[in-house]
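Open question from group meeting: does this chain pack into something compact, or does most of it stay loose? Before anyone orders reagents, we agreed to write out a predicted structure and look at it together. Recording both the input and the output here so the notebook holds the full record.
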Amino acid sequence: MKCSKCGFENNDKAKFCTKCGEKLDSNKTVTQSTTESSGSSKNIIVVLVIIIVILVAAIGFFALNWNSHSVSNDASTSASDKAADSSNANSGQSSQATSSKSKSWELIGSYSGSGTGSKTVTVPEGRIKVELSSFPIKNYADNHLHVKGSNGASGGVDWGPTSAVETRSDSFEFTSSSSQTFTIDYYETVSWEVEFYRYQ
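C-alpha cells returned:
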C-alpha cells in the first residue's frame, strides 16, 4: 500500500506508513491505482486506434494502385495486341501483293516429234526462253535438232560420226517487243521436244 504523503510502499495490511507514520487510506490507494490503470488503458486504446487507421489507409492505397496498374496493363496489352494484329494484317497484304506481282517462267508452247522434217511456230512478244532436247537414230555426221527465230535467236544440238548415241539438250533466251516466227528443223531423230516459256 502506497503512502499518499511520502510515497513509500507499505505492506498491504499496514494501517500507518512505516516511513512517515501517516495513516494509510486503503480507499485512496485503490482509487489512485484504478485511476492509473484507467489512464494506461486509454493510452493503449488510442495507440490501437491510430495503428488501425494507418493499416486501413495503407490497404486502401495499395488497392487503388493495384487496380490502376491492372487497368493500365490491360490497356497496354490490348493496344499491343491490336498493333500486332494490324502488323500481321499489313504483312499478309504485303505478302499477297508481292506474291501476286512476282513473275515466273510459264510454258506457252510445247512441240515434239520424231524422224526428219521441219515445223514453223509463232511466239508472242516478251522475255522468252527456249528449251530443246533430242535423241538421234544413229550417230550420223548430220543428226541434229535446230531452232531458229526470225529475230536471229537460235539454238540446237548436233551429233557427229563419232558422237555417242545419247540425248542432248540446249536452251537460249531472248527478249522481243513483237511476236516472232521460229523454225524447228530436225533430222534422223528418234524423238525431239521444244518448249517455249515466257517470263510473266
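Observations to bring back to the group:
The chain has a mean pLDDT of 84.
Helices lie at 26-101.
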